[in-house]
Design goal:
With 470 residues, the protein is an all-alpha fold. It is 85% helix and 0% strand. The protein is built from 20 helices and no strands. Helix 2 runs antiparallel to helix 13, helix 8 runs antiparallel to helix 9 and helix 16 packs antiparallel against helix 17. The longest helix is centred in the middle third of the chain and has 34 residues.
Length: 470
């Protein structure tokens, strides 16, 4: 029996893993929450908006130059289980080669790239420096996730968040160029840690196996348009707001997105534990358990999202102060968009398992073009608030696309989820979102609703405490 197999036999439950992921994500995002009021006050709105532009391009670039190889690791478990170290070193070195080639192209076209990125070459260089070593962490994170070894992810995520936030705050205070200080503090500490991880991956794997590269390419390269389009859906709004309305409006919109991190924390924590469990149970043909747990999975997420929607005005005040308070109305479509992301992700998991990755990209690219088209029409006319609704429309379109693809093309997987239950939950969340917009106009009614929600949630937890403890 292989070492990886023996480790799989002594693993915690999926629920325990989800809780640990939730803890680490809450801690990491909690630092982001707590530091946001500091950064919104230390930086001008223009500087805050420009940093948002930097991170948007950084996320975009990371997908392009790494060939999105991370997406292949979960599926590779079933084909390279005894050779995972070589698999990781192979895709890591290949992504580094591509990153270096793209960087050289940028250096040869500096002026053009500065216009495209809307930033000086020094910031573009820092992006490439960060992205070169980022896959080392991403690949190890994916590896440990599929083998349910969560401790590495938790420790690294927490330590890197603490270090980068502290470094950014210190550099903003001591540097005259506060934007440069913010970016240096965010990039340098994590990159140093990633270089150490990079060395570990290369030492363990020792080489490039072109069979591994080809396998990863077949799964991941068709997903690049999907990943890029997903980033477009999540980030193009900020780039286009900066272009059409200005950096200050982008700061308002970005802070609203920061507040939506609560919903994102819930979604990320649950999905990180869900996908490996789902793949294992599909492999075992455990359909009844998948149906049962998928309902619990979606129900828990929905209940927690309702709580996030109720408290978002207070989050806006805490994180940004009164100068950002008007952006609270952006929160409802943003959080509702997270709900549709959560659900369509359940169907994307099935497509990844079936290795139908080209289909995934077709849907996301279409939704991205829809989003950009709507942004061009409505952002100049209605401002940054319109961007939240255009993004929501994109996520709704994606949900329907993946739902019908699984129903029509993946016959062996199409009945794993109860679609009637899923539609019922989404309709209820949509209706509650409309209701909560009215509550935002009446503080007393909303506080009563929060109290009612808290009581109901406490009763449900008490009734199910034994199951929760288990």
């Amino acid at each position: 029996m292989s070492k990886s197999k023996r480790n799989e036999d002594r693993v915690p439950t999926t629920a325990q893993i989800a809780l640990w992921y939730a803890f680490s994500n809450i801690f990491v995002k909690g630092i982001a929450f707590l530091s946001t009021p500091v950064f919104t006050r230390l930086l001008s709105k223009v500087e805050y908006g420009m940093f948002s532009n930097f991170t948007s391009w950084e996320n975009f670039l990371a997908v392009i130059v790494t060939l999105d190889f991370t997406a292949s690791i979960a599926r590779a478990k079933y084909d390279f289980n005894d050779n995972m170290e070589t698999y990781l070193s192979s895709i890591l070195l290949m992504s580094n080669i591509v990153t270096f080639i793209v960087y050289m192209i940028v250096e040869l076209n500096r002026a053009l790239c500065e216009k495209i990125f809307s930033m000086d070459i020094i910031y573009i260089r820092m992006m490439f420096f960060y992205v070169m070593f980022l896959p080392a962490f991403s690949y190890l994170q994916a590896k440990y996730r599929i083998y349910r070894k969560y401790k590495f992810f938790v420790v690294f995520a927490i330590s890197s968040a603490v270090i980068r936030t502290g470094a950014a705050t210190m550099l903003i205070l001591i540097m005259q160029d506060k934007l440069l200080g913010r970016i240096l503090g965010d990039v340098i500490p994590v990159t140093i840690m990633n270089i150490i991880l990079w060395g570990n991956v290369i030492y363990q794997g020792k080489k490039i196996d072109w069979n591994c590269v080809r396998y990863a390419s077949v799964i991941s390269i068709p997903l690049i348009p999907h990943a890029i389009s997903g980033i477009v859906l999540g980030s193009s709004d900020r780039i286009m707001i900066t272009k059409y309305v200005g950096a200050e409006a982008n700061a308002m919109y970005t802070l609203a997105y920061q507040c939506s991190l609560l919903a994102n924390i819930i979604w990320t924590s649950m999905s990180q534990a869900w996908m490996p469990w789902l793949f294992d149970n599909i492999q075992s043909d455990n359909r009844k358990q998948i149906d049962k747990n998928s309902r619990i999975y979606l129900s828990v997420f929905s209940v927690l999202v309702v709580g996030v929607l109720l408290i978002t005005p207070e989050l806006m005040l805490i994180l940004g102060g009164k100068q950002y308070y008007e952006a609270r109305f952006v929160m409802v479509p943003v959080v509702l968009g997270c709900a549709f992301q959560f659900v369509y992700g359940m169907y994307v998991n099935l497509e990844v398992y079936a290795k139908k990755t080209m289909i995934i990209s077709i849907g996301t690219v279409s939704a991205a073009f829809l989003n950009i088209g709507l942004n061009v029409i409505f952002i100049p006319q209605y401002g940054y608030i319109a961007a939240a609704y255009t993004t929501l429309i994109g996520y709704i379109a994606l949900f329907f696309f993946h739902f019908f693809i699984v129903k029509m093309k993946l016959k062996e997987l199409r009945d794993l989820y109860n679609y009637k239950f899923i539609f019922m939950i989404l309709i209820l969340l949509f209706l509650f979102s409309c209701f909560v917009m009215i509550l935002y106009q009446n503080r007393l009614a909303r506080y009563i609703m929060i109290l009612f929600y808290g009581v109901i949630l406490s009763v449900l937890i008490f009734i199910n405490k034994e199951k929760i403890i288990k």
